[in-house]
Amino acid sequence: MKAYKLFVLFAAMVFVISCKNENVQPGVSQSQIVARWRIAKDSAANLLNGALTNANVYVGRADDYYDFRADGKCYIHENGSFDTLAYKIVTDNSVAFGNELPSTINPLTSHSATIDFSFAQGPGLTTYSKTVFLTK
User: Which of 7, 15, 21, 31 is 20 to 30 A off residue 87, Cα-Cα?
Assistant: First the structure.
């Protein structure tokens, strides 16, 4: 269960939404991210010493979502599972989820965003990266 929550945490960290004729906002504010976002795609990869060892892509279903609330909670429904994570805006292009694991949000528009997250488990060990693509 802990491994799944960690996976969902990373899934929540990375997201992209794209629509035509949108203006990219210069930074992230809580008012911009607070919304219910549909999962378009969720991709994850593991790299060992720079070599790809595992890659997965999940295409979101109609009932999948990330629901960012003004109280600093994000409610997630993905692939039939539910989770709730705390989040906070750290800088003008990053957000931290759960255990303060940072992710980058760039770009963020009124209907799209990209959140990228990666972390290394230690020197010479696996690097985990995740991107979640969301739409409104």
Answer: 21
- Whether omega for the bond prior to residue 123 falls within 30 degrees of 0, making it cis, is no
DSSP H or E stretch at residue 31:
helix 30-33
Q: Are 115 and 126 in contact (CB under 8 A)?
A: no
**Position with higher pLDDT, 109 vs 107:** 109
Quote the strand ranges of the chain, DSSP E.
35-48, 51-59, 65-68, 73-78, 81-91, 94-97, 101-108, 112-120, 126-135
Say if residue 42 is exposed, middle or buried (CB neighbours under 10 Å; 0-12, 13-18, 19+). Answer: buried
Tokens of 108: 């963020």
Residue 67 and residue 40: Cα distance in Å, rounded? Answer: 14
